Predict the 3D structure of the following.
Amino acid sequence: MGFYYGPSSPQDDPPPGSWKETFIIIWVVFKTLALPLGLLFGAILGFVIVLWAFLTSALLGLALLGLVVAAVVARGIWEARHPPDLS
């Protein structure tokens, strides 16, 4: 009957994972979360820098915001002049 229902003795447990498998899993998780966490921490750091600039001087804060707006506009102009090749 063991042919139909499997062996009558219980099977051995699989061997536990090694330290290499543990580090590979940790590496994959960190690699997956690196970009979202980097963007989150970068946004928080940018907010803190803008807040510090406005607390230091209103003109410094406005200059920093103007610099950010100028960078976004320059990127938009560059993207408009270099459209993607869809062929």
Observations:
- The CA atoms of residues 41 and 76 lie 24 Å apart.
- The first helix runs from residue 2 to 5.
